[in-house]
């Protein structure tokens, strides 16, 4: 009887020891070093508990990866319902900061600060001088590959490897689901992303170009050889005659909503013969998905594919 109890006790102890292995191996992940957007090696010695993010893209990633109790501040854009995918999640974090708030950031005593790749050098230098914690500069998120690498980097810095892998899996699964639907299309549609207030579009080397690729449509500005965010003319739009024209959901003109612009565009005599106008394919897609540079970008792939080929998504 006693021998049986001893065996049971030993088995319980072994099981407990095995269950604790992930905790000890998790602790052993630190210190960790990653390369940031400036090419600097950033080392975090222990699991950060006072994380501060100054960019919406990293707000969105962190809030889906790290407990809000470990985040002391987000960017001022986290609450922007027109652009932020994490408005509700952001309510669990009180602090809001911009890269102008140097003294406020230093006073918050963070143990990890994440700044956008476009941060002003003078402000970055002031933060470096005033803070004793690591400062990670985000990657330039101009591709899906860079977005995924950003998730990997942040998962390592925060000690949330598995959650980072889960976000990448979410991205891959969403893209693969869309790809299966558009894989056998005999003819792909041509799309033009048109930001009317600036008369600009998105060419190669942009995330919008990759959204189009994964959605099974062709970015007509890239076909024309354009790169980045060039301005375009009315004559170019007429020459290209795209099947779909995507208008931003956020209006940059305070006197005109995006929907009002769409109606004005369709009524313009110069555009009356465009395929997109004739087929009622001058559309608005959610900027939170089309403009984001976090894992939520795959929702933009889905939105565009569904708009282009609705019959595939019934």
From TrEMBL:
<feature type="signal peptide">
    <location>
        <begin position="1"/>
        <end position="27"/>
    </location>
</feature>
<dbReference type="Pfam" id="PF01497">
    <property type="entry name" value="Peripla_BP_2"/>
</dbReference>
<feature type="domain" description="Fe/B12 periplasmic-binding">
    <location>
        <begin position="50"/>
        <end position="312"/>
    </location>
</feature>
<keyword id="KW-0732">Signal</keyword>
<dbReference type="InterPro" id="IPR050902">
    <property type="entry name" value="ABC_Transporter_SBP"/>
</dbReference>
<dbReference type="InterPro" id="IPR002491">
    <property type="entry name" value="ABC_transptr_periplasmic_BD"/>
</dbReference>
<protein>
    <submittedName>
        <fullName>ABC transporter substrate-binding protein</fullName>
    </submittedName>
</protein>
<comment type="similarity">
    <text>Belongs to the bacterial solute-binding protein 8 family.</text>
</comment>
């Amino acid at each position: 009887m006693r021998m049986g109890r001893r065996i049971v006790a030993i088995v319980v102890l072994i099981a407990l020891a095995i269950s604790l292995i992930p905790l000890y191996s998790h602790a052993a992940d630190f210190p960790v070093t990653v390369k940031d957007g400036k090419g600097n090696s950033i080392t975090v010695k222990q699991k950060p508990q006072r994380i501060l993010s100054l960019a919406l893209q990293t707000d969105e990633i962190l809030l889906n990866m790290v407990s809000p109790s470990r985040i002391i501040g987000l960017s001022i854009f986290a609450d922007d319902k027109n652009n932020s995918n994490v408005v509700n999640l952001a309510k669990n974090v009180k602090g809001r900061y911009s890269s102008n708030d140097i003294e406020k950031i230093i006073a918050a005593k963070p143990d990890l600060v994440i700044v956008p790749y476009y941060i002003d050098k003078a402000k970055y230098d002031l933060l470096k001088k005033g803070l004793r914690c690591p400062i990670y500069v985000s990657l330039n998120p101009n591709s899906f590959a860079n977005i995924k690498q950003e998730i990997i980097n942040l998962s390592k810095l925060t000690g949330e490897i598995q959650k980072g892998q889960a976000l990448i899996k979410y991205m891959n699964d969403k893209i693969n689901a869309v790809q299966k639907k558009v894989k056998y299309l005999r003819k792909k549609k041509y799309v033009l992303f048109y930001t009317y207030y600036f008369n600009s579009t998105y060419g190669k080397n942009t995330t919008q170009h990759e959204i189009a690729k994964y959605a099974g449509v062709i970015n007509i500005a890239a076909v024309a050889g354009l790169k980045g965010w060039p301005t375009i003319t009315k004559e170019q739009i007429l020459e290209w005659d795209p099947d779909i024209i995507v208008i931003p959901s956020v209006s940059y003109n305070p006197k005109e909503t995006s929907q009002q612009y769409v109606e004005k565009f369709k009524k313009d005599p110069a555009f009356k013969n465009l395929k997109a106008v004739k087929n009622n394919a001058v559309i608005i897609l959610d900027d939170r998905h089309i403009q984001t540079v976090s894992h939520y970008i795959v929702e933009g792939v889905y939105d565009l594919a569904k708009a282009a080929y609705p019959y595939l998504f019934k």
